[in-house]
């Protein structure tokens, strides 16, 4: 099912021509398809039909409250990593008891807010964090439900900067200390152990690391139960990859992932928790940008576009591939040119593609940068005092601006000249 497709020679999001949105909102602009978000959520959730499962969408992938509200209506929970994400999830209508709180550096204030919201579980990543949470809970006269995020020492993920499950990564409790950590948790009056959590990486294109992690955790659950802990939940994290349109391996579909999880966990008697981010959001959005200039360099042609690394960081940070194509379909006898596609920022890393062959374009043409619904807008900054990119949500024939473009005055409003 393609909700971003060409109709009448123009790229559409559902039934809206992207050029219409640009005419109103300008470029750069992120455009999301609500039907795609819903479709991806449903396909993912249906992969786990028949088992006790909570799909806690990983808010970090795309945290716009309109996105969260779209998923909330389908019954999604949320995986949050900050007080800000928690606030977004609650405002969007995701109930506290469907929210899990991950992250290595939760502050006491964030813990207090999450306790007040009655969240389902804290995924605790260290003993100092556990002790702090115990104190915060006791101060409130509450008991904090926890899983430990354990580090299974499984390497996975599309890039070393997004691999999280190996022992040299900062995440989780070391595998060899996991049982001691559970023993300490059992002694703390403000803590109630409910489960085990892992998250091994992102953009994973192979089921083998998931299988390895599940098998390790399954055996850990057995040992924890033998030691008297009540383990009700197994959070397998997120990480399932998506096709980005390059030549790398195509990740398995959620149905295969679901079948694997069902097969390996059927006799564990736990609720399975999933924290998918990219697989829901990634291909639900595009970044639209205008070609500012075509610059003929000595040995190559540069397309200078009005989006930059501050708007979409993935290519600069991870050498990530994103498919880029003109919004207006080229005619049947079109020419191709090989371009380096770059933004206006004063950094060599401000490069979206090198040596990319595509239909020849000219100044003023619109381009769509695909697969930017996840880790796009959320990772943007105002570097070079470039206002954050607006976001638009399409639903059928309608569209709405779901985050406005700040003006330069808006940006400057938050800064102060000191009075000395
Ligand atoms: C703890 C945790 N859960 C879930 C996710 C979502 O990952 P993905 O977008 O790869 O599904 C991440 C990011 O990698 C994460 O760190
Ligand atoms: N931000 C990364 C994924 C890391 C997810 C956070 N654990 C990306 O764009 O691919």
UniProtKB/TrEMBL annotation:
Enzyme Commission code: 4.1.1.20
Domain Orn/DAP/Arg decarboxylase 2 N-terminal: 36-281
Pfam families found in the cross-reference section: Orn_Arg_deC_N, Orn_DAP_Arg_deC
Cofactor field: pyridoxal 5'-phosphate
Ranges for domain Orn/DAP/Arg decarboxylase 2 C-terminal: 30-373
Enzyme class per UniProt: lyase
Binding-site list for substrate: 278, 314, 318, 347, 375
Catalytic activity, reaction form: meso-2,6-diaminopimelate + H(+) = L-lysine + CO2
Keyword vocabulary terms for this entry: Amino-acid biosynthesis, Decarboxylase, Lyase, Lysine biosynthesis, Pyridoxal phosphate
Pathway in which this enzyme or protein is active: Amino-acid biosynthesis; L-lysine biosynthesis via DAP pathway; L-lysine from DL-2,6-diaminopimelate: step 1/1
Sites bearing N6-(pyridoxal phosphate)lysine, chain numbering: 60
Residues bound to pyridoxal 5'-phosphate: 239, 275-278, 375
Family label: Belongs to the Orn/Lys/Arg decarboxylase class-II family. LysA subfamily.
NCBIfam families: lysA
Protein's job: Specifically catalyzes the decarboxylation of meso-diaminopimelate (meso-DAP) to L-lysine.
The protein's assembly and partners: Homodimer.
Protein name: Diaminopimelate decarboxylase
Organism: Algimonas ampicilliniresistens
Upper lineage: Bacteria, Pseudomonadati, Pseudomonadota, Alphaproteobacteria, Maricaulales
